[in-house]
Amino acid sequence: MLMEETHEKNLIVMALVVAFSGAGLSYALANDTPMPPAEGKEVYAYLTDVSPYQDWPLFPGTKKLQEGKHPHGALLTTYVSPSALSAIQERQGQLPVGAFIVKENYMPDQTLGAITIMYRVKGYNPAAGDWFWAKYSADGDIAASGKVDGCINCHTAAIQNDWVFTGPLE
Fold first, then answer.
1. Which of 51, 56, 84, 160 has the fewest CB atoms nearer than 10 Å to its CB?
2. What's the pTM value of the predicted model, to 2 decimals?
């Protein structure tokens, strides 16, 4: 029985690797999973399939479905990757390469309207803090991604806090 379960799990992992490879995804399924490239589909797959952001902690000092502001929605839930959490807790003043902030944007009736992300990628866009920005529909369709002018123009107001509005990094 144990051998059958192990074989079945190995087949599932192999199928996932083949499926992800066929989709052009460049990261492996392992504990040392490389970070995705700054590309909308691959980032979304990473956040939902490889390292599900909903398993991550909330941004310190926030709670689920807290009051939001335009353009992100009436209610927000903000998650941070483990590396981002460490930097925030250690008051480093800047989030490291590979850090994510994932914000679920809800309508007043608590319906998920969109998911917006900030993802730091070394050398991606030095003029905007090396942040990759993306907005996904509740279904995961890409509404915007990359060097998104609207995101950059707004977050420039928080440049002294590493482009982050949610809370202090120092």
1. 160
2. 0.81
